[in-house]
Amino acid sequence: MTSATGSAGSPSSPPSRLPWLPPAAAGVTVVLWASAFVSIRSAGAAYAPGSLALGRLLAGALVLGLVCLVRREGLPPRAAWPGIAVSGLLWFGIYMVALNWGEQQVDAGTAAMVVNIGPLLVALLGGRLLGERLPPRLLAGMAVSFSGAVAVGLSMSGGGRASVLGVALCVLAAVAYAGGVVAQKPALAHGSALQVTTFGCLTGAVACLPFAGQLVRDAADAPLTATLNMLYLGVFPTALAFTTWAYALARTTAGRMGATTYAVPALVVLMAWLALGEIPGPLTLGGGALCLAGVAVSRSRPRPRTTVVAGSAGAPEERSAGTPEERRSA
Q: Do 190 and 77 form a contact (C-beta atoms < 8 A)?
C-alpha cells in the first residue's frame, strides 16, 4: 500500500484555506455516527443484519451518486481505485454486516467495548503501513478515551448477554473498520472525498447484494418507522458523515482521525438520554467524560519551543523553534 504521508506523517493533501473546516467536518461525522446507534435500534428490530446493511448502503449510494452527477465529479483516477475497493469492501461492506450481526449476539455495552479497539488498530496500522508518526499525546489521549469507552461499556453490560460468536463478530467489525480507514487514506491523495466515499459506498453495496432477497422480504413486513430509520442511516450517517470523514481524513493522519471517533460513545450516552429517556449512571457519565477528555488530548498540539539567539545589537531575541520541517528549511 502506497504511503500517503511524508516522513513526518503529515498528510499529502494541501492544508485547507479555512483551518476550521476539517475539525468541523470531523465533528459532523462524530455526531451523525453517534445518532446512528439510536436509529439502528429501531431498524435492527425489523431488518436482518445483511438486509439492513444493504438497504443503508443503497440509500447512501443513491444520494451520493446524485450529488456526483450534479457536481460532475466523474470517475476517480485509476490510482485511487485500489484504496476505494479495499475500503469499500472492508468498511462499507464487512464492517456494517458484522456490526449489525454482532450487536444481535451481545449486549450493547460489550459491543461498544470490543468495537472501540478499532481506533487503536487504526493508529497502529497507520504507523506501520502509512509511515505516520505516533506522538505521545495521541497515544496518551487514545489510552484515556479507551478507558472511558470501557467504563461506558461496563455500565451498559450489567445483566446483558454475550456469546463467542458475537464477540468475534465485533472484533471482525473493528478490524474491518481499521483496515478500511487505512486503505482509504492513500485513495484520498488521488480522488476527492466525494469520489472516494461514493464509490466506496457503491463497492460495499455490491458486496452486500447477496442479501437483496432478504431486504425485499424484510421491507414488505417492516413498520414504516423501521424503514425510515434505515433510510436515515443511508442518507445522513452514511452519505453525509462518510463524506465529511473523508474530507477531514485527507487533511490529517489516520491515527488522529481514529482517535476523534472516541467522542461517539459519549454522544451516544447523551442522545440515548435525550431521545430514549435512558438516564445514565455515574459510571456511564464518568466514562463519557473520559472519552471526550482523551479526544481533546489526542487532538492537541504541543506548543512550539523557543530558542534565544543574539540580536543585531547583541541583545537576546526569542524565536520559535518551529516544526522540524520549518527548521530544516530555515
A: yes
